[in-house]
Amino acid sequence: MLTKYQHQLDRIQSKITILKEKDIEMNLFGSKSHQYTFNQPLTNQTITAFENKHQITLPQGYRAFLEQIGNGGMGPYYGLETLADGVFASLDYKEKKYGVQNLSEPFPHTNNWNAPGYREGMSYEDYLTWQELCFQDKEVFGLLRIANFGCGVSINLVVNGSSYGEIWVDDRCSDNGIFPDFYFGNTNRLHFLEWYELWLDQSIEECE
User: Fold this and answer.
1) For residues 197 and 19, what is the distance between their CA atoms, to the nearest angstrom?
2) 161: which strand partners?
3) How far apart are CA 26 and CA 79, in angstroms?
4) Which percentage of the chain shows pLDDT scores above 70?
5) pTM of the predicted model as reported, rounded to 2 decimal places
6) Contact at 8 Å (CB) between 85 and 71?
């Protein structure tokens, strides 16, 4: 598995070094949060235990990143979440009372989704009813939280379902629903290593 991704991981590692050197003063968004550091990589045994617990198989590129580069830290927005923290329903409030993600059930979406029925001028009561539809747990089954965009918005890796391996945005807090991540100007759906490397490329360019 690692051999398949080794060339890309080596390239990512080189770009990580370049970005650190270019942004010594930590001017890029989120850099003061993650400070261009990583948590220690995870062992194969630890990752396998997580997979067994949640009845999933992590996408191989993400798994390789966890083993070779780090378990959360330097990354887009406020940085990458640890594997363990990725199960929390809210990245702003990492407490079980706010719920945890059900990874063992498949993510139900393959295209942009938002709860039906929203209309401008709806009453507050109707809006609350509509929000209840938005925030049903089943709409985010199979999503592992990997980064906090802020304001309740999370970036997620699909670990179960037809969209397996893709990066999706959960922006229900702003009434925008759930959709594939095109925030970096990409026209194709990205898997983890592609998404992470694109962030590195754009961040390095921003520091030029």
Assistant:
1) 11
2) 107
3) 13
4) 98
5) 0.94
6) no
